[in-house]
Amino acid sequence: MAAAPRDEPFEAHVVSSSLVHTGRVWDVRSDTVRYGDAEFVREYVDHPGAAAVVAIDDAQRVLLIQQYRHPIRHRDWEIPAGLLDVSGEAPMMTAQRELAEEADLVATSWQPLVSIFTTPGGNDEIVHLFLARGLSAAPEVHAREDEEADIRLEWVPLDQVVTGILDGSLRNGILSVGVLAAAEVLRREARG
Fold this sequence. Notes:
The chain is an alpha+beta fold and 192 residues long. It has helices at residues 91-103, 158-167, 173-191, and strands at residues 13-21, 27-35, 38-46, 50-55, 61-69, 74-78, 81-83, 105-117, 126-137, 152-157. Strands 7-4-9-8 form a 4-stranded mixed β-sheet, sandwiched between helices. β8 (105-117) and β9 form a beta hairpin. α2 (158-167) packs across α3. It is globular, with a radius of gyration of 19 Å. The mean pLDDT is 94.
């Protein structure tokens, strides 16, 4: 039997690399790459990475947050997430920090779900997703500003979120992968 498919790291020869734009959150780079006999230029977003949290309460409800996202001109539903922008902070610690900052919650149980490349043709972002359970109020409430100033929080039954993903009414990629992975983890736990 053939081995299951698996992404594999590969270092193509980068002939040159230049910074096209320095941003507040991420940069844009232009690399000239030699791959086999070809040489080509690729521009991409150089991203610090992120962590995200699928928080599920004892009633099997998922915490969703809604906030404005300017590039898509929507207030989309998401899960708590944030950049890996604190030096030395592990992805799980980022997830814990973001759950407290965006939802004023802490969790007693943390489980890695999956790590995904969000848009491998256009950026190098990797998002590490975690399942959080055993939820309670954080010891302090965080001030929110910019897009986070009017975050809306909703607890939605897990099966309703899965249905929303599948029918296209919830289109956030990180939410979709995280919730579907969490639903599968819970299904496997129930099977024993």
